[in-house]
Design goal:
It contains 32 helices and 14 strands. With about 725 residues, it is α/β, with parallel strands linked by helices. Among the domains are: about 265-465 and about 680-720, 3-Layer(aba) Sandwich (Rossmann fold); about 465-635, Rossmann fold (3-Layer(aba) Sandwich). The strands form two sheets. The protein has an eight-stranded mixed beta sheet. A six-stranded parallel beta sheet has the order 11-10-9-12-13-14, sandwiched between helices. Strand 9 (about 490-495), helix 21 (about 505-510) and strand 10 form a beta-alpha-beta unit. The termini are far apart.
């Protein structure tokens, strides 16, 4: 031994102890120069060493106490050098640690760290010398210790390299993800959800366990014992992240979302009608804007249609017309201020529209979404989303806005069924409504179950009554307490005078039970296209109906009526019914899904048959309405309606945008890593693209009932709203 040249791994002292001391010195230098990359190597080496001590210490122990002391001292020194977290390291030994090369070009293609190669070369020399060493005599022929240690180093090197790479998905992982994303589609085919979950679990469990374990070592602490779905999402996210791919759950979404200009969120409420047209889609969105604007969390913009003067004369009552949008805005604000007890701080914008006589509604002209600036394109509330998007040819709402809520006001299918070829038209409109609401809305609110079932929809009454009606009701209760006779008149009906608004049902009921209701008469208030026809039918049947021009329901002349009769079954949620209840009157209405919200009020009397209608009329005319409790008054208010709207539309969560912290925050942050687009998102994007293509064809638009020239706004609307012509905003080159 002494006559030989000093070994490359000899550091003095006993051969075994010097070898291990020298290796430990080299390991400390590795730790000091590449501590972050070698943390996993230390832990793995520690486990291998513990395994070695456990397996081979009895063999070493047989060699004797004196030799055992030398052997274990070297092993202990090696182990302590690996697991020690602090302390002085290394000194300057004969063996110098080769450091990492600084240039990526030199690193590329290396399969082993240079430090590992030098340790391995040292171990070869150590193995050669150990053959003649008595301490390691128990390992002669097999060189078990050296071989095991070299394998450990190789494994550490390989693991360190692979831990930095995200390996591609295998086939079973892809199948598991596709089955899970296809859940809604498989539901439509009648395949149970639990069976889908079982398939996902089966595919996922057949994956390469080594792959999953070693590809996500840093994430195991985050996902913990969570379910398989979270692990699969995280795995997909890591693979996508490694490719540089990014998506916001749809191929068709705008990659550059507009940032909010200040700390307040922006809510745009887009509706299909405006005052002075006294219709629900003009009044209810106006109150919604006022009550949402009371919060300091968001700014609100109400977007309403602007009509040319010729259309204004057809739509607005009492020959009211406006020469400019500013005039109409002043009218709207004055009307609202008379009915509110606070200052309504919101913005009003206009988009061009045209009135359709056949549909008796306003159809948007051009791309309505362009009238909300990009800086305010945050949250959109589409009042009547199906109506707004039937012929929408413009930017997709869910691309421009972060959250889009649709509020369904009208039971269009019920109206269409009453027309010629109504069944066929209703079938087509039903599917078109499904199409556009799915393509353009994140959430849909249906005021009652009277509307068709739509994708992503929930049922909730998110409308309240004008505060003025609640004050009228309070005054009536106070007058009754002072002994005054409050109701001096009988029954009345108020509504737009078209057959579908309940006039057909009213005439049928009264004509059928004319003898049972002898002496009973109803005063009718309303204007509309069918006024002449309704009055003519009533005269022919000699019914006790007295017709008057339409007026505001809060008019003083209507306070004295005790009974409000509404036989309509075409409404979604009748605003006049809610107003009558707020004023403390009896309400007689059909037992119908549109009246479900009102059934909890004691003054609401419902009927299923014409005989029950007669009984309810007699009951109401003979009795006195019950005063509303404070809770019942609150349920009718816009404050309560706004709370319901915030909850059911999930707008409260969007506005709050709650931040998370701690371990839970890490989990949520990890789940925000971009994943593969959901299958439903891809389908929605495809539907929106197809709709955009179809609505761009003028022939198809006209064939489906669109007003000619509504794909873009016309010259007169450009002048009224100070807009650039469509040809300037969207030029077509090459013609």
């Amino acid at each position: 031994m002494g006559g030989e040249r000093p070994s490359a791994i000899t550091g003095g002292g006993a051969d075994g102890g010097g070898a291990f001391a020298f290796i430990s010195k080299g390991w400390r230098e590795v730790r000091d120069t590449a501590s972050a990359d070698l943390r996993q190597m230390r832990a793995r080496a520690d486990r291998e060493l513990e395994h070695f001590l456990t397996q081979y210490s009895p063999t070493v122990r047989e060699r004797g106490a004196s030799r055992l002391r030398v052997d274990l001292s070297g092993i202990t020194a090696f182990r302590d050098a690996i697991v020690a977290e602090g302390g002085a390291g290394g000194g300057s030994g004969r063996w110098k640690l080769a450091r990492w090369k600084g240039h990526a070009g030199e690193d590329e293609g290396r399969k082993e760290w240079e430090v590992v190669r030098m340790i391995r070369s040292g171990l070869k020399e150590f193995e050669r010398r150990s053959l003649s060493n008595e301490v390691f005599g128990g390992f002669r022929g097999r060189s078990e210790f050296v071989e095991k240690f070299k394998l450990s180093l190789k494994s550490l090197n390989k693991q360190s390299q692979e831990s930095k790479e995200v390996l591609p998905l295998d086939l079973t992982e892809i199948l598991a993800y596709l089955v899970r994303q296809s859940g809604p589609f498989l539901d439509q085919l009648g395949i149970r959800r639990d069976l889908c979950d079982k398939l996902v679990e089966t595919f996922y469990n057949k994956r390469n366990g080594w792959l999953m374990y070693h590809s996500l070592p840093a994430d195991k602490s985050l996902i913990g014992n969570e379910n398989m779905t979270a692990e699969l999402d995280l795995r997909i996210a890591r693979v996508l992240e490694s490719t540089g791919y990014h998506t916001e759950e749809s191929f068709w979404k705008d990659p550059a979302k507009h940032k909010i200009s200040d700390n307040r969120r922006h809510v745009a409420i887009v509706t299909t009608a405006s005052l002075p047209w006294m219709t629900g889609t003009a009044i209810n969105p106006l109150f919604r804007a006022a009550y949402l604007a009371r919060s300091t969390k968001q700014k609100v913009t109400l977007v309403v249609p602007w009509l040319c003067k010729s259309d204004q004369e057809l739509v607005y009552p009492n020959n009211i017309t406006f020469g400019s949008p500013e005039e109409q805005e002043n009218y709207i604000r004055n009307w609202l201020q008379e009915r509110l007890g606070f200052e309504a701080n919101f913005k009003i914008s206009f988009y061009p529209g045209k009135f359709s006589k056949e549909r008796r509604s306003i159809i948007p002209a051009g791309d309505t979404s362009q009238f909300i600036s990009s800086s305010e394109a945050d949250i959109a509330i589409l009042e009547e989303p199906e109506h707004l998007n039937w012929y929408h040819h413009g930017k997709r709402w869910t691309d421009k806005f972060k959250h889009v809520i649709g509020v369904v006001h009208t039971n269009y299918l019920e109206y269409i069924k009453r027309e010629k070829n109504g069944a066929l038209q209703a079938f087509l409109v039903k599917h078109i409504n499904n199409w556009v609401t799915r393509a353009y809305c994140h959430k849909v609110l249906r005021l009652s179950a009277a509307t068709q079932d739509l994708p992503r929809s929930v049922i909730c009454n998110v409308h309240g009554v004008n505060p003025k009606f609640l004050k009228i009701g309070e005054k009536i209760v106070a007058d009754r307490e002072h002994g005054q006779h409050t109701f001096s008149k009988g029954a009345y009906f108020l509504g737009k005078m078209v057959w579908a608004k309940g006039y057909r049902e009213l005439i049928d009921l009264l004509s059928k039970h004319k003898g049972d209701l002898e002496g009973f008469s109803i005063d009718v208030y309303g204007n509309g296209e069918d006024s002449q026809a309704v009055q003519t039918a009533a005269r022919k049947l000699n019914l006790s109906l007295h017709f008057y021009k339409g007026r505001d329901h809060a008019d003083c002349s209507l306070h004295g009526y005790k009974v409000f009769i509404n036989p309509s079954v075409s409404d979604v949620l009748c605003t006049a019914t809610a107003e009558a209840l707020a004023m403390g009157k009896f309400v007689i209405c059909a037992d119908h899904p549109s009246n479900e919200f009102f059934k909890s009020f004691p003054n609401c009397l419902t009927y299923k048959t014409s005989e029950e209608f007669v009984a309810r009329v007699k009951e109401a005319m003979a009795g006195e309405p019950s005063p509303l409790t404070p809770e019942q008054r609150y349920n009718l208010s816009w404050e309560a309606a706004t709370e319901r709207f915030m909850e059911y539309s999930e707008l409260d969560k969007v506005l709050n945008n709650r931040s998370c912290s701690g371990q839970d925050g890490k989990r949520r942050k990890m789940r925000k890593i971009p994943l593969l687009p959901k299958l439903s998102g891809i389908v929605d994007g495809g539907l929106a693209f197809a709709h955009h293509c179809l609505t761009g064809n003028e022939i198809l638009r006209l064939a489906t009932g669109a007003i000619p020239g509504t794909r873009d706004y016309d010259k007169q609307q450009c002048m009224d709203l100070n807009l650039l012509p469509p040809q300037v905003q969207h030029p077509v080159y090459g013609w």
